[in-house]
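Page 42, continued from yesterday. The earlier attempt failed because a stray header line got pasted into the input along with the sequence. Redoing it now with the clean sequence only.
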Amino acid sequence: MNRNKLLQHNIVSGWDVRQESWQARTQSQTGLVLPWGSLHEKFWLVKGEMTIVSGYSGHGKSAFVNHIALDLASKNIKSFVCSFELKQGKLWNRFFQYGMGLGESSFECMSAFCNYYDEKIFTYDLLGSAKINEVLESAEVIFQEAKPDLFIFDNLMMLNDASEKLSEQQMIVQKLLNFAQTRNVHVILVAHPKKPESYLHCGNIRVTTPPNLYDVAGTSNMVNMVDNHISVTRNDLKIIAQGKQANGIALDKKEESALHEGDTILIRDKNRDVGDNFIKFLAFCKKFQRLSDNHMVDKYGRCNCKPYFEYSKRC
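This time it went through. C-alpha cells are written below.
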C-alpha cells in the first residue's frame, strides 16, 4: 500500500494520526481553570476550542468573561481581551474593581495594580465596530509576541456590523474558530440573545427566562459550529423575593426557594465532548463587583472574597 499516495488525497489511518490523537486526549482532560470552585469539575477552557457566552444586556456576561481573564492573569496565564463597548480606562477600572474592590483607592494603588498585570492582560484599544480581519491581525501579533492562552471578543455585534447579515456572522465565527484551532488557544465570543423571553409571575411580574443556545441572535449555525455555549442570566425571581421579604409580603414556594439560590444563573447547554452540561448559581459580591461561589457571599451581599492583588500601602 502506498501510504504517501493516500496522504496526498487526504486519506489517513491510525498510525498517521497517533500524535494528534494523543494531543486531543490529553488536552480534553486539562484546560484553563475557571475562578469558581463549584465549576472545577464541570467545565474548563480547553485549548483549541471556542465558547460562545450569551446573556441579556446588564445581566453580567462581560463581567463573567473579564473576571476569568483577571483570575488567569493572577496565575501568570495571559489573556487578550477585545472589548468594543468600553474605553480602555473603564475596562481596566473594572479589572481593578474585580481585583481590589470598591473601597478607597489612590493613583499609586491603581498604578501598582496595572504594573502587576502588565504583560499578563492585553487589551484591544478600539471603541466601536471593528473589522474582523484587522482584529485577528492584532490577535496574531499578540500571539506571536506574548503567547496568550485566552482570547476574548466582546461582542459579536461589533464585528463587521454583524448585526445585519447572518452570513457575515457565520463567517466571523468560522474565522475565530480557525484561530482557536490553529493557534491552540481558547477563544470566547460574547453574543447577545434575541429579544428576552419572560413569563408572568404571580400574574403581574415578569421574570426573564435564561436564553438557550438557539436564542443567540443570528443564525443557529453559529452555535452549532463552536464547542461550548454558556448563558449568564440575572436571577430575577430572587430579586422579586428579596423585595417582597423586605416589605413584609408573604412569599410563595418558588420565591422561598429562590432566596437560597445565587444571584446569577449560569447554564452550559452546548458541550461538544469535554465536561458536563449544567445549571449553576453564582452569588454577586458587592465589594468586588464580581461573581463568586454561593458560600462566599451571605444574603446581604457581604463576602469572604479575597483581593487578587495586595498593595502594601493603604489604597
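Notes: Residues 166-183 form the longest helix (18 residues).
Reminder to self: strip header lines before submitting.
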